[in-house]
Amino acid sequence: MKIQSIRGVKDILPGEIEKWHKVEAAARRVLAPYGFQEIRLPIFESTSLFKRSIGETTDIVEKEMYTFTDRGGDEITLRPEGTASVVRSYIQHKMHGQAQLVKLYYMGPMFRYERPQAGRFRQFYQIGAEALGSASPLVDAEVMTMLIALFRDLGLNGVELQINSLGCPECRPPYRELLKDAIRKHLDELCSNCTSRYERNPLRVLDCKVERDREIALTLPRISDHLCEGCRENFAAVQEALTSMDTPFTLNTQLVRGLDYYTRTTFEVVGTEGLGSQNAICGGGRYDTLVEEFDGPPTPCFGFAVGVERLIATLPESTWQDIAKKPDLFAVLMGEKAKRRGQALIQTLRAAGWYVELDYEGGSMKSQMRKANRQECRFVLIIGDNEIESGTYFLKNMTDGQQVSIDSDQCIEMIETHLKTP
């Protein structure tokens, strides 16, 4: 039987992985000036971590987590998202004693069992950032502004930042009861998921992706109309800060996100084309109670996660121009003496950071030149036994066809001079 990859996962091959590299490099470049530092998180954690943080009634916990019992009898889950792991690490390593505001980012695969579709896989990749330790609305605005700066750095301008407030432990409970009363009138029209869990978590109805349920959700009470004074003032301050930072946004009163730990500001960035109905590139928001729920100190937090596959699918083609790395030099070596001398030169050039290729099979001059041409090498270095005897090598520019002589005693310096020329 032919062995193939499991449905919903994919190999990221050479020719495509360069896109991941470019996005990851841009994230590191943009996040660094804001003070964010990278954290590497485990691929799997205790199942209870995700059940407690994400919420028992979410689709992720009820349907999508990859959970198993290991040989020691512990229940383990492949991480479906990164925030819970960051919070666990923050508490475990007592980062709250290091600084007033801890800024962390992570990159890597997440795992959810769901129907594969455009931009959505069972093993998918995220870049996430978390700011832990401040309730200031300036943090909300700054992190969202940083995210938009990342998209602009990658040439992505056709996106929309949508924001909402989910209230706090003071104003959300009465809103939940109001929402439940309103939903009860539509129970015979809602999907089975919504009818089975609206009592436990009615906000999930607002997040349902079934078209009929989405239409009903538009008629339900909006949490933005039932915020307490503190949440109204906080959300107004977030909007004012975004405006002062020149970060465009729109209000989306239906936006609730899919995880239970969010409070106050929540947001999504959506793409305008290429992803169909599932067009969210990233999302996030404030989660001021999660650290305390895990027995840590009171710690207000704000963060986001970007779906890398969706981001790559949304970026314009111009982003990938000249992304493939082509050899700087191809060494054509003819004869045993030339091979010995040439191999030493190649290693010296590679140690200096130059990408050098050669024909390992040692074909004819013509066949080696064809290989150099197919690989679109910038230059070809030609060394034969006669060139070894004369002490003169030849360097050919494959762009304009110009060929120059190079003194063997100064060949490294002379080759690098040509390679540094644009």
Automatic annotation (TrEMBL):
It is found in: Cytoplasm. Belongs to the class-II aminoacyl-tRNA synthetase family. It comes from the Bacteria. Signal peptide: none annotated. Its EC number is 6.1.1.21. NCBIfam families: hisS. HAMAP family: His_tRNA_synth (MF_00127). GO terms for molecular function: ATP binding; histidine-tRNA ligase activity. Keywords: Aminoacyl-tRNA synthetase, ATP-binding, Cytoplasm, Ligase, Nucleotide-binding, Protein biosynthesis. This is Histidine--tRNA ligase. GO terms for biological process: histidyl-tRNA aminoacylation. SUPFAM superfamilies: Class II aaRS ABD-related, Class II aaRS and biotin synthetases. The gene is hisS. Pfam families: HGTP_anticodon, tRNA-synt_His. CDD domains: HisRS-like_core, HisRS_anticodon. It catalyses: tRNA(His) + L-histidine + ATP = L-histidyl-tRNA(His) + AMP + diphosphate + H(+). Residues 1-327 form the Aminoacyl-transfer RNA synthetases class-II family profile domain. Homodimer. The keyword Nucleotide-binding applies. It comes from Nitrospina gracilis (strain 3/211). GO terms for cellular component: cytoplasm. InterPro entries: aa-tRNA-synth_II, aa-tRNA-synth_II/BPL/LPL, Anticodon-bd, Anticodon-bd_dom_sf, His-tRNA-ligase, HisRS-like_core, HisRS/HisZ, HisRS_anticodon. L-histidine binds at E81, G82, T83, R112, Q126, E130, R257, Y261, Y262.
